[in-house]
Amino acid sequence: MDLTNLEPVVGKIGEEEKLLLVCAKGKRGYLTQNKLRALGYTNTRVLEGGATFNVVRVTMPAGGTLSPAEIKRVKSLGCLQDKRTPNLFNVRVITRNGKITTEEHRTVAEAAERFGSGEITMTTRLTLEIQGVPYENIQPVIDFLAQHGLETGGTGSLVRPVVSCKGTTCQYGLIDTFALSDIIHERFYKGYHHVTLPHKFKIAVGGCPNNCGRCKGKCPFGVTEEYVSGYKIYIGGRWGKKIAHGHALEKVFTSQEEVLDVVERAILFFRDEGLTGERFADTIQRLGFDYVQNKLLHGTIEKAAILNKTVKGGATC
Predict the structure, then answer these.
(1) Residues with Cβ < 8 Å from 18, sequence gap 6 or more?
(2) CA 61/CA 87 separation, integer angstroms
(3) Per DSSP, what are the bridge partners of residue 108?
(4) Distance between CA 270 and CA 280 in Å, rounded?
(5) What is residue 4's predicted lDDT score, i.e. its pLDDT?
(6) Spatial contact of 35 and 42, defined as CB atoms under 8 Å apart
(7) 242-255 pLDDT, tens digit each
(8) Cβ distance 210 to 196 under 8 Å?
(9) Which of 69, 80, 122, 61 shows the shortest CA–CA distance to 97?
């Protein structure tokens, strides 16, 4: 029932009646119980743990289990299997640097209520995950989101959704990070969406100043009178179970087009010389930073030939 409308109960079921309240995990059951108590319904009980933890039989497709091929297929759509319950999936919803409109917020919330467990999490890459979506609800939730202009994805051996800090609005931000990351997202996440890489490839945009950017023109000793405004590019940084610090390319890039060119060259280089299953940081470590930097800044990269190569991806999520 719609928790904002208790009309089906109030005035139609006696206040003394015993009511058992059941939802997926119990949270909404307790919220409803509190509302009913305020209306005089005191003889209520909530199924502890909810239906998710009490229903033994789960619905599976024909054959009883999901095949590895089917699990891989739905993963490519942004739906990751929940390790605790094989029939449930967490569905990733792409955001723009973590930004969504209030209407999109409502859409995701409704999707979680209708098709999932009612819970939503955020990933470290600022995508949203609708939790606990049964297998049979995967396509309906994808269709529902698409009807409201939202898409799922962000998995596989591909360029991943681009993120940025709030440099656009932050008092310390030196560039419009939202605008630049949106351009990179459109050109390389969407534009390269069907280009398989050796592993996932992540891009982030930061607007924090390097070399005391806020001090330009303010130093009483005049040591900052000569400076170059531009972009620094770091390659090979990684977070997670195996951490790697990014290496700064030696050049200061003074135009946005230069930045976009190097980003594309890095993606193509990784596709061409990376090995299946290794991250870009591993490729740099194996080949040497000097070699990779020289290739990105000065080397010849044959885009058409590289895109025509057959590459097997090694990402597991």
Answers:
(1) 43, 44, 45
(2) 9
(3) none
(4) 6
(5) 67
(6) no
(7) 899 999 999 999 99
(8) no
(9) 122
The predicted model gives 222-227 an average pLDDT of 68
Q: Do strands 234-235 and 247-248 pair parallel, antiparallel, or not at all (unpaired)?
A: antiparallel
What is the spatial distance between Cα 193 and Cα 287, in angstroms, rounded to a whole number?
26
Closest CA to 154 of 103, 225, 203: 203
Q: Which helix (H) or strand (E) holds 266?
A: helix 256-273
Residue with tokens 């079921």: 13
Partners of 129 in the β-ladder: 92, 121
User: Residue 3 has what pLDDT?
Assistant: 67
Locate 229 and state its tokens: 């405004």
Buried b (16+ CB within 10 A) or exposed e, 121-152: eebebbbbbbbbbbbebbeebbebbeeeebeb
Mean pLDDT across the stretch 42-70?
68
- pLDDT at position 42 is 84
**Is the pTM here over 0.85, yes or no?**
no
Three-class secondary structure assignment of 111-175 = HHHHHCCCCEEECCCCCEEEEEEEHHHHHHHHHHHHHCCCCECCCCCCECCCEECCCCCCCCCCC
Structure tokens that stand for 260 in this block: 């976009």
| Contact status, residue 110 vs residue 141, Cβ threshold 8 Å | no
- The residue-averaged pLDDT of 168-189 equals 92
pLDDT at 56: 40
pLDDT given at position 215: 64
| DSSP code for 249 | P
Confirm if 118 and 129 have CB atoms less than 8 A apart. no
- For residue 189, the Cα-to-chain-centroid distance in whole angstroms is 12
